[in-house]
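Re: weekly structure request thread

Next one in the queue (498 aa):
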Amino acid sequence: MKAIFYGLRNNHVYLVLITLVCGTVVLWAWEKTPFLTTILPPQDHVMRLSPVIPDDKIEEKQVSVGGDISEQSEKVMPDDKIKEKQVSVGENISDHLEKEISPSTKEVSDVEQVSKQKNSSKQGEKKNLVAPSSSVRTDSSVRGEDNNNLMSHVEKQACSYAKGKWVTDDSRPLYSGFGCKQWLSSMWSCRLTQRQDFQYEKLRWQPKDCKMEDFTGSKFLSRMKDKTLAFVGDSLGRQQFQSVMCMVTGGEQRTDVLNVGEEYGLVKGRGAIRPGGWAYRFPNTNTTVLYYWSASLCDLVPLDITNLSTDVAMHLDRPPAFLRHYLHKFDVLVLNTGHHWNRGKLNANRWVMYVGGVPNTDRKIAGIPGARNLTVHSIIKWVNSQLLRYPGLKAFYRSISPRHFFNGDWDTGGTCENTSANAAGMEVLQEESSDDLAARAVKGTSVKLLDITALSQLRDEGHISRYSIKATPGAQDCLHWCLPGVPDTWNEILFAQL
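Done, posted below.
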């Protein structure tokens, strides 16, 4: 029995020794042999609770782009060593980026593709992890060299070109009022009049919340390659059209620019003072810029086409026939109306209000404010409905250009003889547009507001005033602007929004 006992004890000792040796070998192999790591999962793949990261180690921000910008806030990132931004986006991310953050659309799209590929390759590894929220990762190429990262895109989204101030810029004007005779009506070129003060030409609009891109003719033509820009509106729209032509050409004579008015029916009719508009094409980039006169933005139809003095049906709820016929050819559309909405103009033009195809009988609409309100809302609603058919079209409604008649009106001795830009202040800080009708009409639509009312209100010294080519006394023009002048800024803002 003793022999058996000692034999078992010796075997037990041997078993313990063998176990210690094997354990040592296994531990040594675990550290030295990569093969074994494929058998057991690494530590970071084991499900565990994430520790709370102290504030001083948070290095990144998570910005929600899909919702309202006022609701965006900083969020804690899951790891203090992550060096990229994570942006939560909604279902319409492609539309949002195209409209609001267009300079980075391609870059973000490329990053999305890479992110999808990475997610696909790591899908098996993430089965035991909490699924992350839908996101797009961006790198330094999206953020840009200024290291302002993704917040720069949020700033662009929040940018209001209507807020800012007028500053002196000795590099202005963008063209010469003496030289742009090919495009600029002489009655609007104050350099050709007796006016001696031209400080109004040296002012540049500086937005408060964003930097406005410098306008150059080459940039404009490149951006509008194979595209058509159409202005449809009253004489202030015509000024904006002529301003663009002068800005793009630098006021220089251009024999290569083609008159293509016939393509749009813009020809001078028999007995007419001028055609219904103009259209010019820059052949090198196939860029067309046109203007069509429609002071009311209504469809005007003579009741008797054989009678020159007939009344004209003013269809308040119907867009002009020109827009219905040619909208499909436009890439950028700028609409405006306003100053023809007075009883004197309607009576002089023999315009009779129609609604629903019949003479209007609604007393609320019969008044000028009610009629204009119906028309502005109707034209914007119609254009917005057409954007579904023409997704490449960008439409703008330009807010009303302010008048500056003091001590009377245009026909009762009103004047605007101030020559100092500082008289009415130089800055706009208000959040809402001064043109409430325009702001309400575009709300909830894809038609953008080109808001120029408040910033133009500060520039009463920029009107044509009492100056004219022949220096004839008479009523002052405190409605139209000297060119170069304020309408150039309208086009700079339009260019920035393109």
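The CA atoms of residues 424 and 458 lie 5 Å apart. The radius of gyration is 34 Å.
Next request, please.
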